[in-house]
Amino acid sequence: MNAVAFAPDGRTLAAGNADGTVVFWIISDLNQLRDHVVERACSITRGGLDRTGWKRYLPDLPYQDTCPT
To answer: Do 68 and 42 share a structural domain?
Structure first.
């Protein structure tokens, strides 16, 4: 990526390449994912992440039990 910019609404991020390609991300969705990481990890994995999986996929977050019973 050669350039990135936030839209004035603060909810969209645009990234551009030298070849003229532009990719847009709706970052409000990313914020939703970040704010509900435990619930999403349980839902996506259908059983949760153990400590090894958590460290692999979410290395910057402290471990949490993703599917508490």
So the answer is: yes
